[in-house]
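Repro:
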Amino acid sequence: MVKIRLMRIGKKNRPSFRIGAFDIRSQRDGKCLENLGQYDVLEKNAEKQIVLHKERILHWLRKGAQPTETVALILKKHGVTLKPAAAAAPKAKEAAPAPPAEAPKPA
């Protein structure tokens, strides 16, 4: 199984993370299957703080990769979500014939 999770990089007291696709059995800072983006916690500029490779993230999500809670929040914030397959619309049943109107009773 594959997880999309954060890998800590950077110096002491200067946290920075890589977002990557990892086998669940690999270590936190172990070898990733693919690098999917970066997250710099201390960056002031919002555009530079999080860099995502959206197409590759969607590729891994379609293959069944599960994001961790933190990564799921980051992806949701940036509008990267896997839309569930549209459920087939239920077939409309044939309209039952309307009950015949009662004939006026003879007086």
